[in-house]
Structure to design on (838 residues):
């Protein structure tokens, strides 16, 4: 008998045979890999499709998947926060988007909506390339910049060249005030630091501690407590750390951080970050001091192997040094306060009587013994020399190692801990409010709350425009339309502002050096008036009375328009001898004995035709770039859009330069150098400067900051220092107290002839911020011919000129003492009085 099957039967038989055929090689491969004990067979693509067609459960799962949207957007994060998306205007941030493609693999871009830049007709969207495997949740990070406070930011998925996005989400944003800084907690139990949020160390004394809305706006610091201590949202991009002032390291494994995060911490430290490492029985000091640790070269000490046990009696000296603060509203409601402990030269401040640290007899405080591993360290001690901390400078910043655990219950109960945290841990200056004035609402500004500085941004930072505080004129004077408690300090720290002093100097110098004067509004107005006069009255008069044919006026109109167009083109044209050119002024800032440098570029582009440039930084993921306000715009000018692409390589795309016009952009990056510029020798013997930067330094001057009367700087001329060269410093007799830049007579013949550098070298050498952490600074100011490498322009330019300004911070003084007048106006009372009060 011959069995026959219809067409559907043959199809089914073929699929069954196919399953058998495809399953044999899979089993053979499994045996070849030593997996023969695993009886699970590898399902082929044909078998999977057959199962989906015949298995009801598989069909139901497939139908369920088809009901899902193509893309699912989950959480949007702003580092270092997990949930709250706080953004400070004029700072770069690290955005992270969690999302998933459900129905297919996706390749495209993740980008923000265009963000208008301040005071110029340009907008920038911030994007990165994405690859989303089907059904796999992804976390994607990239950098973005917001010049103003926004309530939300649109983030979309789009394919290159597409007219519409494939999907989008709206990320809510919260404003971080200009003066507010972040304190990040790294630890296994970060919630133990939650009581610090209510300390006067992080909230101005003039703020009502019960008014949460006011605290939100006026607080000095915002504690960042991770939800999951094992997965902290720290950015690997060092230039997105500008809003972080302190990092609390509490029993945290350094290996939990990736290499990028570790390098970002070290960079942040050298430019002013403050790292506090807690002690105690479970301290992470042994792991950090290990030779393999990324922080080991910078620590002030290591475990000595000994421990010290202190009782409540032993801690009376510490209690006497740090009395609890008093809030302004409490001071007003209860004016009975003993001012006998205040310095006679100071007005009474708002401290109460010292209170002892309440230690149970059976639970003494255990101090971890530390031994210094560097010579430039300072101890935190009480009046009897008991050691509660060891610290040292790291570049501009510092590392403090506490010898005890600040999470101890006794310290959490101690009301003087508020003052200890402010003066020792945060090293925050004392509030300057007047306790006798109930209406005083004064606050500290950003530069007093953070040591972090980037010279290119902070040489003389401009005040950012106010958003919300309006001043109105009254008949008899000026009054504020907002409550005094809503007025906030506007002094910024590390803000990206084109109106700051150094960008403004670079803009003026580059525009002058270009030799190109772009016609401004007066020129356009004169041309328009002349054209209208020639078009109407003059044209009609000539045709009516000279040619005696009025109808010819219509014929003259197009000829007149073409003639004026040619005349304007010739009047505005400049024969430069090249089609495209770029001039740039770079600032290279180095920290003591550190081979990485912060590089800021200020560049101007010129083109004879309309060009869209791309500015790339191959191989440097730390680079950032934005259009810069050249102050050449005309009211009503059309807004042009550019794109900042973070990955796969950072680059500013579609940067438009109009015909025969100028356009400016600025960029920053952290670059690796062959070595640093270091100071060798001691104060007693001869001192030398070693130039390991790989640059030939010219017109170098040594600046001893704040040693002259009145806090002025003292200068010593060094001259030229070749790359790899060693120069002996001159004696004190060769120094002087006034400096305005290099001698023009000596500078002639060396160049650069196209740019006047005296306007830069003078301010870079003369500035003195006057902060306690700046005391003892010694820096070198010089310049090097030519721009720094690493920036790529497409299309290329016919002429590229540049000069690099160099500022090397050779030395900083020790960390300022928490007992200095900047941090306290309180004179400790004798311990006997505190003992009697018990």
């Amino acid at each position: 008998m011959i069995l026959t099957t219809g067409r559907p039967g043959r199809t089914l038989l073929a699929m069954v045979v196919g399953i058998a055929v495809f399953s044999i090689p899979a089993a053979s491969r499994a045996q070849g890999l030593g997996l023969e004990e695993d009886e699970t067979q590898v399902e082929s693509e044909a078998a999977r499709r057959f199962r989906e067609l015949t298995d009801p459960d598989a069909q139901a799962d497939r139908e369920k998947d088809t009901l899902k949207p193509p893309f699912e957007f989950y959480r949007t994060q702003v580092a270092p926060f997990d949930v709250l998306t706080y953004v400070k205007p004029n700072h770069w941030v690290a955005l992270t988007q969690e999302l998933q493609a459900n129905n297919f693999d996706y390749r495209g871009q993740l980008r923000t909506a265009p963000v208008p830049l301040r005071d110029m007709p340009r907008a920038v969207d911030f994007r990165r390339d994405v690859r989303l495997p089907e059904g796999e949740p992804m976390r994607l990070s990239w950098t973005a910049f917001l010049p103003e406070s926004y309530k939300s930011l649109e983030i979309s998925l789009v394919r290159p060249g597409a007219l519409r996005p494939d999907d989008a989400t709206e990320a809510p944003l919260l404003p971080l005030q200009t003066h507010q800084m972040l304190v990040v907690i790294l630890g296994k139990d970060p919630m133990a630091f939650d009581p610090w949020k209510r300390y006067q160390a992080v909230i101005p004394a003039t703020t009502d501690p019960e008014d949460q809305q006011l605290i939100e706006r006026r607080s000095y610091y915002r504690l960042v407590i991770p939800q999951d201590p094992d997965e902290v949202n720290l950015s690997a991009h060092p230039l997105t750390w500008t809003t972080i002032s302190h990092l609390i390291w509490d029993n945290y494994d350094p290996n939990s951080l990736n290499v990028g995060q570790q390098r970002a911490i070290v960079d942040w430290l050298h430019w002013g970050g403050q790292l506090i490492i807690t002690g105690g029985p479970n301290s992470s000091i042994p792991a950090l001091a290990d030779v393999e640790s990324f922080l080991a070269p910078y620590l002030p000490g290591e475990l000595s192997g000994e421990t010290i046990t202190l009782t409540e009696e032993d801690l009376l000296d510490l209690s006497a040094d740090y009395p609890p603060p008093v809030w302004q509203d409490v001071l007003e409601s209860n004016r009975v306060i003993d001012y006998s402990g205040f310095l006679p030269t100071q007005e009474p401040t708002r401290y109460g009587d010292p209170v002892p640290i309440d230690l149970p007899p059976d639970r003494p405080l255990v101090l971890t013994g530390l031994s210094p591993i560097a010579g430039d360290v300072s101890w935190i001690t009480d009046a009897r020399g008991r050691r509660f901390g060891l610290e040292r400078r790291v570049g501009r910043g510092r590392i403090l190692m506490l010898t005890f655990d600040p999470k101890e219950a006794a310290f959490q109960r101690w009301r003087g801990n508020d003052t200890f945290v402010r003066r020792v841990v945060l090293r925050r200056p004392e509030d300057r409010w007047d306790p006798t004035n109930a209406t005083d609402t004064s606050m500290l500004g950003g530069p007093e709350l953070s040591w972090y500085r980037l010279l290119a941004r902070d040489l003389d930072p401009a005040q950012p425009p106010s958003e919300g505080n309006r001043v109105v004129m009254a008949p008899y004077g000026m009054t504020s339309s907002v409550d005094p408690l809503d007025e906030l300090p506007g002094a910024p720290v590390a803000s990206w502002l084109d109106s700051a002093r150094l960008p403004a100097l670079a803009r003026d110098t580059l525009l002058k050096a270009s030799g190109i004067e772009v016609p401004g509004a007066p020129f356009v107005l004169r041309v328009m008036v002349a054209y209208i006069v020639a078009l109407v009255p003059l044209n009609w008069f000539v045709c009516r009375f000279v040619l005696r044919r009025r109808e010819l006026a219509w014929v003259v109109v197009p000829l007149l328009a073409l003639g004026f167009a040619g005349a304007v083109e010739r009047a505005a044209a400049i024969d430069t001898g090249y089609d495209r050119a770029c001039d740039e002024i770079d600032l290279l800032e180095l920290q003591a004995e550190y081979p990485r440098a912060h590089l800021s570029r200020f560049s101007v582009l010129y083109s004879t035709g309309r060009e869209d440039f791309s500015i790339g930084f191959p191989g440097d993921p730390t680079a950032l770039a934005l259009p810069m306000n050249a102050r050449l715009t005309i009211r009503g000018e059309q807004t042009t859009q550019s794109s900042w692409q973070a990955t796969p390589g950072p680059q500013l795309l579609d940067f438009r330069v109009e015909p025969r016009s100028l356009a400016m952009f600025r960029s920053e990056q952290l670059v690796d150098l062959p070595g640093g510029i270091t100071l060798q020798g001691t104060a007693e013997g001869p001192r030398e400067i070693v130039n390991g930067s790989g640059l030939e330094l010219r017109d170098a001057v040594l600046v001893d900051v704040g040693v002259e009367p009145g806090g002025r700087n003292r200068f010593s001329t060094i001259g030229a220092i070749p790359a790899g060269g060693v120069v002996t410093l001159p004696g004190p007799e060769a120094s002087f107290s006034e400096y305005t830049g290099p001698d023009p007579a000596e500078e002639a013949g060396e160049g650069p002839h196209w740019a006047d550098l005296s306007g830069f070298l003078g301010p870079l050498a003369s500035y003195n911020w006057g902060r306690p952490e700046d005391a003892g600074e010694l820096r070198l100011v010089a310049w090097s011919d030519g721009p720094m490498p690493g920036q790529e322009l497409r299309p290329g330019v016919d002429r590229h000129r540049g000069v690099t300004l160099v500022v090397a911070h050779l030395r900083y003084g020790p960390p300022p003492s928490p007992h200095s007048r900047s941090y306290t106006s309180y004179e400790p009372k004798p311990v006997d009085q505190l003992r009697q009060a018990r």
In short: The CA atoms of residues 707 and 713 lie 6 Å apart. The first strand starts at residue 71 and ends at 78. Confidence is low (pLDDT under 50) at residues 1-42, 336-347, 467-482, 745-749.
